[in-house]
């Protein structure tokens, strides 16, 4: 083989090695950069390692951008059989400086009852983040993030469309919140009153879910603020959620969302549907 051919062979081999190194480096970089989570998309896998960034309490964490849009309501479940999952979801310039975030430890259930679950209603385009970690500094291992888009409308949107009134219609899910600026009862409990109109005949089911407070639900005759008490519920099926199933005469009603925790605030989902056995 001539010197020219030998030089060409070595040059080609060097180029191939460089290309392979670049591919390997790109793959390593992709693995070290957590994937963006698309609500309603396929599950996102990740792994906590002892080389990851560390929180103030010493636990390892990884941050995933969350591609959620204004008006969407998304449920995120962090599942792991390697450690006790801890989940934080919020918005901010970075995952370390989130505002209005929500956290959870064990609400997601799972095989060991240690999965985490958070539901958020996006009031703007963010940026939004999902921070995955364990509950202490020793926990590492694989995890999976599952997301589901909840077919809900935001309370702010409802009020804009109805001249400031809170209205819920049959078949709707409203994602809203109790805040320190919400109306208060005489004893200081925050509440929000939703108007709805029953058409009669069928059983009406009203479901109140919240991961932030122990919910309390009442239905009163007439539009908000309501008059005669029709039904009320605190907890059902060993949960802190509330549910009322009643056969209601046609006409206007007030659904009052409140808490049993005094001045508690937070997000909730209110669902109005037909069906079920009357309580």
What this model shows, in words?
- The protein has 279 residues and is mainly beta.
- The protein has 2 helices and 18 strands.
- The longest helix is centred in the first third of the chain and has 30 residues, at 3-32.
- The radius of gyration is 25 Å and the shape is elongated.
- 32% of the residues are buried.
- Mean pLDDT is 85; it is low at 1-31.
Keywords for this structure?
13% helix; disordered N terminus; 18 strands; 279 residues; five-stranded antiparallel β-sheet; elongated; mainly beta
**What is the total tally of β strands?**
18
Kindly name the structural category.
Answer: mainly beta
Oligomeric state of shown chains: single chain
Largest beta sheet, briefly? 5 strands, antiparallel
What shape does the CA trace take?
elongated
Order of helices and strands: HEEEEEEEEEEHEEEEEEEE
Strand-residue proportion: 35-45%
Can you tell me the residue ranges where pLDDT is under 50 for at least 5 consecutive residues? Answer: 1-31
| Rg, Cα atoms, Å | 25 Å
Counted by DSSP, the helix tally is: 2
Cα distance spanning the termini? 92 Å
- Helix residue percentage: 10-25%
Q: Give the integer mean of the pLDDT values.
A: 85
Spatial arrangement of strands, main beta sheet: 2-3-8-5-6
Topology diagram in text:
Elements lengths: L2 H30 L11 E5 L4 E2 L5 E7 L6 E7 L5 E7 L7 E6 L11 E6 L6 E7 L6 E10 L2 E2 H7 L11 E6 L12 E8 L4 E7 L5 E7 L7 E5 L8 E6 L3 E9 L6 E9 L5
Parallel strand pairs: 10-11
Antiparallel strand pairs: 1-9, 2-3, 3-8, 4-7, 4-9, 5-6, 5-8, 11-18, 12-17, 13-16, 13-18, 14-15, 14-17
């Amino acid at each position: 083989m001539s010197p020219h051919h030998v030089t060409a062979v070595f040059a080609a081999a060097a180029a191939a090695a460089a290309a392979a190194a670049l591919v390997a480096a790109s793959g390593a970089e992709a693995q070290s950069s957590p994937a963006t989570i698309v609500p309603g998309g396929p599950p996102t896998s990740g792994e906590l390692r002892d080389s990851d960034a560390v929180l103030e309490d010493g636990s390892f964490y990884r941050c995933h951008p969350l591609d959620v849009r204004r008006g969407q309501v998304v449920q995120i479940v962090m599942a792991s059989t390697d450690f006790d999952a801890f989940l934080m979801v919020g918005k901010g310039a970075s995952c370390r400086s989130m505002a209005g975030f929500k956290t959870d430890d064990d609400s997601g259930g799972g095989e060991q009852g240690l999965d985490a679950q958070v539901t958020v209603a996006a009031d703007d385009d963010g940026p939004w983040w999902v921070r995955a970690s364990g509950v202490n500094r020793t926990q590492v291992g694989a995890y999976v993030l599952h997301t589901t888009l909840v077919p809900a409308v935001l309370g702010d949107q409802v009020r804009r469309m109805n001249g400031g009134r809170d209205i819920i219609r049959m078949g709707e899910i409203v994602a809203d919140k109790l805040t320190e600026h919400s109306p208060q009862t005489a004893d200081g409990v925050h509440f929000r009153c939703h108007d709805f109109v029953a058409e009669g005949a069928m059983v009406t089911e009203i479901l109140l879910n919240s991961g932030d407070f122990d919910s309390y639900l009442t239905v009163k005759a007439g539009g908000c603020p309501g008059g005669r008490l029709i039904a009320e519920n605190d907890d059902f099926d060993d949960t802190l959620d509330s549910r009322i199933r009643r056969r209601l005469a046609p006409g206007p009603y007030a659904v009052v969302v409140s808490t049993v925790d005094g001045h508690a605030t937070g997000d909730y989902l209110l669902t109005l549907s037909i069906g079920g056995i009357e309580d």
